[in-house]
Write a structure and sequence with these properties.
By secondary structure, the chain is mainly beta. The chain has helices at 33-38, 121-131, and strands spanning 2-6, 12-17, 25-30, 41-43, 49-54, 60-63, 71-75, 83-88, 91-97, 101-102, 109-114, 135-140. It contains two helices and twelve strands; from the N terminus they run E-E-E-H-E-E-E-E-E-E-E-E-H-E.
């Protein structure tokens, strides 16, 4: 199943090649203050392939907080956060925000709360390697 998504204005877009045809899409409703304020509800699938396109890199920004192990990719024009990346051992991993999906039946999305507060950095990175999208390409025009 190919899932397309984008920020509100379309500056940051992505295609996610999900490895199942009609999946249930597990989504984590993050409880951190950044995600609460930005509507971050994240999904990932190891083995999936994510292709991101940033039309105008000057109209996007990157934000890292806390452990500085993840980069939130924010459209400076519309304020949406379509995806988050994390470089671990020279490999790029990512999660995508289900709230930025285009044309996906929301009944497929299974939202559940998550809280990673207090997780140490090694555990956090290890969890990402196991659960995040591990085939990520970002193109900037």
């Amino acid at each position: 199943m190919l899932i397309n998504g984008k920020c509100h204005c379309g500056n940051i877009s992505f295609s996610l090649d999900w490895v199942e045809e009609t999946p249930d899409i597990p989504a984590r409703v993050c409880g951190c203050t950044f995600c609460i304020k930005h509507g971050g509800v994240w999904t990932s699938k190891p083995g999936a392939a994510l292709r991101v396109r940033v039309r105008d890199p000057a109209a996007s920004s990157k934000y890292a907080f806390g452990t500085k192990t993840a980069t939130f990719h924010i459209c400076s024009r519309c304020g949406a956060v379509p995806f988050v990346s994390s470089e671990i051992a020279n490999r790029l991993y990512a999660v995508v925000n289900v709230n930025t999906f285009e044309g996906v039946d929301q009944s497929l999305v299974r939202k559940a709360g998550s809280d990673f507060e207090g997780e140490d950095v090694d555990s956090r990175l290890s969890r990402r390697v196991r659960h995040w999208i591990d085939n990520v390409k970002i193109e900037e025009d």
